[in-house]
Amino acid sequence: MKQSQIRVLIAKPGLDGHDRGAKVIARALRDAGFEVIYTGIRQTPQMIAEAALQEDVDVVGLSILSGAHMTLCPKVVELLHTQGQEDVLVLLGGIIPDEDAAQLKTAGVHAVFGPGTTSAEIIAFIRNAMVGG
Amino acid sequence: MPKPVPTQQLINNLLRGDRLALARAISRVEDDAEEAARIVKAVFAHTGRAHLIGITGAPGTGKSTLVSALVESYRARGETVGVLAVDPTSPFSGGALLGDRVRMTRHSGDAGVFIRSMATRRGTGGLAKASADALLLLDAAGFDCVLVETVGAGQAEIEIARVADTVVVVEAPGLGDEVQAIKAGLLEIADIFAVNKADRKGAARTVAALEMMLETGGAAVRTVLHHGQRMEAGATASITEDEDGWSIPVLETIAVSGGGAAQLRDALERHRTWLDESGARVARESRRLNHMLQTLVQAEILARMEQALSPGLHREMVEKMQQRETDPYSAAADLVRKL
């Protein structure tokens, strides 16, 4: 079990600028006692992986509403693995069709949260993952 | 979960400049006092080379943007830069939202730059408890200069003066009048003033107020920081100069467009040269190390004290105070006697 402070990177890859969801989640995670690093919009997978490394985060949360999740998410996972961060939990939020979600999970995304997911569910998921390992 | 990398291996990799090792070492130093001791012991001999620069100022003055512009300016000269950006921890949830990277994204992909966000956790004075250790790690990892951005500081958040070689206090137009400029605290720790957002109305007035403050006796206040106790300021010091001849510049910057960043970097380099030539660098380092030592000794004594005194005893004293059988001072003296 991880005793230390849980650090989460919240990033918005791709070209859509709708970051309200990401900000709401960032705030909710902060209020749950996590240290949240917010990187802003229009991040490339390389930028996200680099920030995840420098910040030594336990969790990377991606918010994608542009429909580009099938290219962006696997790329982030791949970069994290190449740089030695295989243990980082990768979460995706957005409007993701079921068959895409299934495919992303086999590509290394740990969970996909669609519309209607509560902050509490996401917080519980992270806490469980950190305890269970 | 995979097994954590052994500390010794982490240290070796950090000293070779491995970025993941550096990132993980900073986390361990933040999370665990024993690990902090182990890591700092191993890297300390490799520190003392980087120019440690503190950037402080009120919230909204543009510290992060200015840091980003400075990084660019140092990189243009081929110097490598580490950044430690500190933001506050919520005293209510223990969580933190660290948003300084948003203003620094343009350095992404540059292997000569390493940016780390840090929450204050239980630290006070505008920095985290682990900030000083994290600076040692960035120094040991080989960065030419390390920029530390404090939390948005009020008037008393001056811890940065204890850890940096050079302190830049960032001001912005419209934050206060001449009276604000002569208050104690933040303004007294500046080696350089940067009046940011200098394209806005009122910038000239802010510059004038700061210059007026410096001319009317901002001199030699540095010594106040010695052990946190006031030392006599040299009465013969020139009124526009700090200890041994450093004249505090007031610069205008427009961080968002990079305006003035090169001049600020030049001033920082002049200050660094002055530190070396005047001997002030040695004096400041000695002060810094003395402070670190004191902090660690106090923490150790506190830990031993907490071990030695049972919680029951504390409760007993509190109850006696509530019954007015004793007072806070006598109760404290009683507890200390029991050690």
Briefly characterize the structure:
The complex is a heterodimer of chains A (133) and B (339). By secondary structure, chain A is an alpha/beta fold. Chain A is 44% helix and 18% strand.
CATH class of chain A: Alpha Beta
Rg from alpha-carbon coordinates of chain A:
13 Å
* Content of β-strand of chain B: 5-15%
Q: The biggest beta sheet of chain A, please?
A: 5 strands, parallel
**Mean pLDDT, all residues of chain B:** 87
Oligomer: heterodimer
Could you say which structural class the secondary elements and strand pairing of chain A correspond to? alpha/beta
Order of helices and strands of chain B: HHHEHEEEHEHEHEHEHHHH
Describe this protein's structure.
The complex is a heterodimer of chains A (133) and B (339). Chain A has 133 residues and is an alpha/beta fold. Chain A has a single domain (7-132), classed as 3-Layer(aba) Sandwich (Rossmann fold), CATH 3.40.50.280. Chain A has helices at 20-31, 45-54, 69-82, 98-106, 119-132, and strands spanning 7-11, 35-38, 59-64, 89-94, 111-113. In chain A, strands 2-1-3-4-5 form a five-stranded parallel beta sheet, with helices on both faces. The longest helix of chain A is centred in the middle third of the chain and has 14 residues, at 69-82. Chain A starts with 6 loop residues before the first strand and ends with a helix. The mean pLDDT of chain A is 92. Chain B is of the alpha/beta class. Chain B has three domains: 1-46, no CATH class; 48-281, P-loop containing nucleotide triphosphate hydrolases (Rossmann fold), CATH 3.40.50.300; 296-337, no CATH class. Chain B has twelve helices and eight strands. Chain B has helices spanning 7-15, 19-31, 33-43, 63-76, 131-140, 160-163, 178-181, 203-215, 261-278, 280-308, 311-322, 328-337, and strands at 51-57, 81-87, 96-98, 113-119, 145-149, 166-171, 192-195, 250-252. A seven-stranded parallel beta sheet of chain B has the order 4-2-5-1-6-7-8, with helices on both faces. In chain B, helix 1 (7-15) packs across helix 2 (19-31), helix 1 (7-15) crosses helix 3 (33-43) and helix 4 crosses helix 9 (261-278). Chain B is globular, with a radius of gyration of 22 Å. Residues 218-241 of chain B have low confidence and may be disordered. The A-B interface holds A 2-5, 7, 26-27, 29-40, 43-44, 46-47, 50-51, 53-56, 83-87, 133 and B 1-2, 19-20, 23-24, 26-27, 30-32, 89-90, 93-99, 101-102, 105, 108-109, 114-117, 119, 121.
